[in-house]
Model the fold of this input.
Amino acid sequence: MTGPTALEDEFGDIIAKARRGQELDPGGLARAAGLAAAEVARIERYEYTPSEAAVRRLAGVLGLAPEKLWASACRRYVPAARAGHHRQVTVTTIGPRGAFAANAYLITCNRTKASLLVDPGGNADRIIQAIASAEAHVEMVVLTHGHGDHVGALPAVVARTGAPVFIHAADVALLGPLASLVDERLIGQEHLAWGAQSLHVQPVPGHTAGSVCLIHAEAAFVGDVLFAGSVGGTHDRENYARLLEGIAAHLLSLPPDLCLYPGHGPPTSVAEERANNPFFPSCG
Done:
C-alpha cells in the first residue's frame, strides 16, 4: 500500500499555524505585514497567493524563512525521500481515506518478520489486511499521540492482534474510553524492542502534551510533530515555542538521510526539512 503524495500543509496552512502559534489575530498579522485583513483570511482559505514581497513581509512578521516560505507559496517543494524498503526494516504505509484520516505504519523487521504498528487511526479493515499481506506478527502498537484520527482503529487492531498498546502517559486522557486498551504508559527515553529491531521514544511536546517521535536507526515516525514542509498545530506561544525547539533539537539534528514518516502527508527526510521547512530559518 502506498502513502499520500500531496503535502499535508499548503502555504495557507503554514501562515495560519504560525499566526495561531504566536497568538496573533488575522487583523494584527495583516497590519504588521502591510496587508488587508481580508487578504490574510483568503490566504488561510487557500484562495489567494500574494506577491513575493508580501510573502517576505509575512515571513518577517511570523519569524519564518522568507525563501522557504516563497517556495511553499509557489508550490515548489515536493519531498523526494526514498521510503518503504530499508536495510533493516520494511515500512508499509497504510494511507488515509476520508477527511482528517492519518497514516498508519507497519514496521516489519526484515530478519524476523516481527512488526510494530504505529497510529492505527482508521480504516481498520485495511490495516488488518496490510498485516495479513505482510505475514507480520505485530508485537506492539505504539501511538505517537492521543488524537482521535490516530487511534480510531485501535479496538479492531487489538482484537485482531492481541498486541499491547503504548502511549505517553500525558496523552492517555485524550483517548477517552479507549484508554482502557492501554497497556504501557510511556514517560519518554524508552527503547522499545521488537524482532531484531529497537527504537527510541523521544518526547516532542507542543502539538499535544504527550506527543512522541519514534526514532529507529533508519527512520523516524514523527506523528503530528512534523510534516513535509510544515509542523503540527499549536494554539499558544508556549506550546509553539516548545514544538519548534523540540523539532530542532531532536529531529533536525538527526543524520541528514534519515527518512521521516509523518502522521499526515508524504515521507520526507532530515536534509529535506532542514533545506525547505519555513519554520526553521536557521537551517538550510
